[in-house]
Design a protein that fits this description.
The complex is a heterodimer.
Chain A: H1 3-14, H2 35-49, H3 55-59, H4 64-70
Helix pairs in contact in A: 1-2
Chain B: E1 4-6, E2 9-19, E3 21-24, H1 34-44, E4 48-51, H2 58-73, E5 82-86, H3 97-104, E6 112-116, H4 122-135, E7 141-148, H5 159-164, E8 168-176, E9 181-187, E10 195-196, E11 217-218, H6 220-241, E12 251-254, H7 259-269, H8 280-283, H9 290-302, E13 307-316, E14 320-329, E15 337-339, H10 345-348
Parallel strand pairs in B: 2-15, 5-6, 5-7, 12-13
Antiparallel strand pairs in B: 1-9, 2-8, 3-4, 7-8, 9-14, 10-11, 13-14
Helix pairs in contact in B: 6-7
Classes of the chains: A mainly alpha, B alpha/beta.
């Protein structure tokens, strides 16, 4: 998956346009980064990468880049 | 997946009952912030629920449902030889609430009677073992009563618990006859603590919950991941084993926890929108009752006599999940009614304990 595709997935989860975020975006600054977004990310990780990720692991992440690094 | 395949089991009736108290999710604006309520509705899909009037228990709702079903089928207590009550909130710790229902419904004595403590997989678990008892010749006609009516007072710190769960009582009649019921039942005890009500219980004899209620907690992330992976996996194994696909079924009846989970399962199992019947918008999550209640809701909507090919899946606390398929005639499914009834005598029982005081 390309970085652009990763960004598109993340933007969709955050309910934002892809232009509104970049690798340095700090997740906690968006109120859309909530428990529902975390569940969506869990679903995405399972579906696209076949990985079972714990909510606590995701909550510990700070930036969009951290999410992108997990997406492998 | 080993699965089971019965050829002598028929579901010959379903009856569902709600309490009369109806609460819209938006009624709680003020208790919770409006934007949180709107987000809750968008994610869960739950717009309203029915709640106990404070005296009604799950068994009261199931009792009305069962009486109505027996009347509709022209049955008396002499005709029933198994009565199973599946609930998360029995009337008493001992005995099984099923015995109070045995009395209230006037069932004859040679009847297998007990409660089963499973939750959201209750309908599919119940069909699996009662179907097996019928197939094996131990039972001819069984009442499967499933209900919950837990009272969750609104709590500021937990919007989900406060607004998610609704009350309902259901009665399903299973009989020996020419009919196929097939599926598979799964459990994973390593997830015992993912959804749990640890107190009151023998592990913690001296503890009471600070809120005074036997709260259930749920690790949402783990529940979500379990559901969206294990349930679709079981569907796939089911389709492979029984050489069929969603094309062979008219409707898929999933347990109704929230819209987000339903969408994930539907996407992964490839269930078309028109085949997935959603009823949680009207009733919330009614635990083990969601599937029979959903079937009754569907039949009301269809409003025509026909035989439906249904594939059902219950999943939740345990962890426990199952897929069960069967045919059902819509004329055996009664319209949903509501009731304010409760069992006065049930309150008398406590007098046997001597001087008991209600908690403050």
């Amino acid at each position: 998956m390309t970085n652009q595709e990763k960004l598109e997935h993340i933007a969709e989860i955050l309910d934002l346009e892809v232009e509104e975020i970049n690798e340095d975006t700090v997740l906690s600054e968006y109120e859309e980064w909530d428990s529902v977004a975390i569940l969506s990310f869990i679903a995405l990780m399972d579906e696209e990468f076949g990985k079972a990720v714990k909510g606590a692991e995701i909550r510990a992440l700070e930036t969009v880049k951290d999410l992108m690094d997990m997406m492998e | 997946m080993k699965g089971f395949d019965y050829n002598q089991v028929v579901i010959s009736g379903i009856s569902c009952v709600l309490p009369e108290v109806r609460k819209e999710t938006r009624d709680y604006i003020g208790v919770f912030e409006e934007k949180d309520i709107e987000k809750f509705i968008e994610t869960t899909g739950i717009k309203q629920r029915y709640l106990s009037n404070g005296k009604q228990t799950a068994s009261d709702l199931c009792c009305v449902a069962a009486k109505r079903l027996m009347e509709h089928k022209g049955l008396t207590g002499e005709d029933i030889d198994a009565l199973i009550f599946i609930t998360q909130d029995p009337d008493y710790k001992v005995p099984s609430t099923a015995f109070t229902l045995h009395k209230r419904l006037g069932i004859q004595k040679e009847c297998l009677t007990f409660d089963v403590n499973v939750g959201c997989s209750g309908f599919t678990v119940g069909l699996t073992f009662l179907g097996g008892l019928i197939q094996g010749g131990l039972v001819n006609r069984a009442l499967l009563l499933i209900g919950d009516a837990m009272l969750y007072p609104p709590q500021n710190d937990d919007l989900t618990d406060s607004l998610m769960f609704g009350a309902a009582g259901t009665a399903t009649l299973l009989e020996k006859g020419e009919g196929r019921m097939y599926g598979a039942n799964m459990s994973d005890g390593t997830g015992y603590n993912v959804i749990m009500a640890p107190i009151p219980g023998a592990r913690f004899p001296d503890m009471v919950h600070p809120k005074g209620t036997p709260d259930t907690y749920m690790i949402n992330d783990d529940t979500f991941l379990f559901t969206i992976t294990q349930v679709p996996k079981l569907f796939k194994e089911f389709f492979k084993k029984y050489e069929c696909s969603m094309d062979d079924f008219d409707y898929c009846m999933l347990h109704q926890p929230n819209l987000m989970i339903l969408k994930q399962i539907a996407k992964r199992v490839k269930i078309a929108d028109e085949k997935l019947h959603v009823s949680l918008d009207k009733y919330g999550n009614t635990d083990g009752a969601t599937i029979p209640l959903g079937i009754a809701d569907l039949c009301q909507e269809l409003n025509e006599e026909r035989t439906l090919k249904l594939i059902c899946s219950g999943f939740g606390v345990g962890l426990s999940w199952a897929v069960v398929a069967f045919d059902l005639n819509t004329c055996d499914v009664l319209p949903i009614i509501s009731t304010d009834e409760y069992w006065e005598e049930g309150f008398e029982a406590i007098k046997c304990m001597g001087a008991m005081e209600p908690k403050e």
